[in-house]
Write a structure and sequence with these properties.
By secondary structure, the protein is mainly α. The protein is built from 13 helices and four strands. Among the domains are: 62 residues, Winged helix-like DNA-binding domain superfamily/Winged helix DNA-binding domain (Arc Repressor Mutant, subunit A, Orthogonal Bundle); 72 residues, Winged helix-like DNA-binding domain superfamily/Winged helix DNA-binding domain (Arc Repressor Mutant, subunit A); 37 residues.
Length: 294
C-alpha cells in the first residue's frame, strides 16, 4: 500500500504552487471525487500534504519525502538504457498497456517499475496519458524501432538461403552442388516399392495367367465365359415377374398396415398388456358369474 506507483509519481510531477484538491482533477483528466481519493492516498504515503484554508480551498503541497522521490526520478531518468528498460519496451510492444500489466508480466517491484517507466517517458521511448485515475502506456516511434519493429511479435520467417534444409524438402537443389541425395532417395524409394509390390501382389500376379493363357489347340478358355453367362441367365430367370398395379397397391397397403401395427405396439405396448389383463379378468368374472347362475 505504501509503495510508490507510477501514478503517484505522475501526481507528484504535476503538483505546483497553485495546485488544490478542487482544481487538480483537470490536470489528470479525473473527476473530483477520484482526484480527492488519489491525493488522499498520496498524503497517506507521506509524499504530499493537503492544507485546508479559509474559503474552502484545499491547497496541495509536496513533502520532503515527495521531493526526494522527484529528485531520484530525475537522476534515474538521465541514466543510459538498461536491460530492464528493454524488457519494458518489449513487454509493451507485446500487448501490455498499463503499469499493472507490466508489473505482473515482469514480476518487479512497483517502485522500480515507476522509476523506469518515467525514465523511458523522459527519453521519448514511451508515452502515457491519465484518464479516470488510470494510466495508459504506449510506445513512441523511437521505442517501437528500438524493439526491432514487428520482430517482437514473433520469430522472423527464415529464408531459403538461411534454411537449406527447407530448400531440400521443397525439392530445390543447393547451389553449386550435385543432386546426389535426390537420386539416392529415388533408388531407395523404388526398391521399397518393388518389395511392397512383391509382398502384396505377387501371389495375385501368379494367378492371372490362368485366365489368359491359351490352350494347346490355340483356343482360349471359354468355359469360364460360358459359366458366367449361365449364372447370369439363371439369376435373370429367378427374378420375380413384374406385379400388376392392383397387386402392388395391395402389397403397399399391407406393408403400411404392418408398419403402423409395429409402431403402435412399440409405442403403447404397456397399455396393450394392461388392456389384455383387464379383458382376461373381466372374462374370468363373467365366466364365474355364469357358472354360479347355472
Amino acid at each position: 500500500m505504501n509503495e510508490l506507483t507510477f501514478l503517484d509519481l505522475v501526481i507528484l510531477k504535476k503538483i505546483d504552487a497553485n495546485s488544490s484538491v478542487e482544481n487538480f482533477g483537470s490536470q489528470i483528466n479525473t473527476s473530483f471525487f477520484e482526484t480527492a481519493n488519489l491525493l488522499g492516498t498520496v498524503k497517506i504515503k507521506g509524499y504530499a500534504n493537503i492544507e485546508t484554508s479559509i474559503g474552502g480551498i484545499s491547497k496541495v503541497t509536496i513533502t520532503d519525502a515527495g521531493m526526494g522521490i522527484l529528485a531520484l526520478a530525475e537522476k534515474k531518468a538521465a541514466e543510459p538504457v538498461e536491460p530492464l528498460d528493454t524488457a519494458l519496451l518489449h513487454a509493451l510492444a507485446g500487448g501490455a498497456k498499463d503499469p499493472e500489466a507490466l508489473q505482473s508480466q515482469l514480476n518487479i517491484r512497483s517502485g522500480d517499475l515507476a522509476y523506469h517507466i518515467n525514465k523511458m517517458a523522459v527519453q521519448s521511448f514511451m508515452d502515457y496519458d491519465v484518464r479516470s485515475s488510470k494510466v495508459n502506456l504506449m510506445l513512441t516511434e523511437q521505442g517501437f524501432n528500438s524493439t526491432g519493429g514487428v520482430k517482437v511479435q514473433g520469430m522472423p520467417v527464415p529464408t531459403a538461403a538461411a534454411d537449406p534444409l527447407s530448400a531440400k524438402q521443397k525439392g530445390a537443389p543447393s547451389s553449386g552442388a550435385p543432386d546426389d541425395s535426390r537420386g539416392a532417395q529415388t533408388e531407395e524409394k523404388k526398391e521399397k516399392e518393388d518389395i511392397f509390390h512383391i509382398l502384396r501382389g505377387g501371389d495375385r500376379e501368379e494367378k492371372k495367367p490362368e485366365h489368359h493363357v491359351p490352350k494347346e489347340d490355340g483356343s482360349h478358355a471359354h468355359g469360364h465365359v460360358h459359366e458366367g453367362h449361365e449364372h447370369a441367365q439363371k439369376k435373370h430367370d429367378e427374378q420375380p415377374a413384374p406385379k400388376s398395379p392392383e397387386e402392388a397397391k395391395k402389397q403397399e397397403h399391407t406393408r403400411r398396415m404392418l408398419s403402423k401395427a409395429r409402431y403402435y405396439l412399440a409405442e403403447y405396448w404397456a397399455w396393450v398388456i394392461l388392456i389384455l389383463i383387464a379383458a382376461a379378468v373381466f372374462a374370468g368374472a363373467v365366466y364365474s358369474m355364469i357358472s354360479r347362475m347355472a
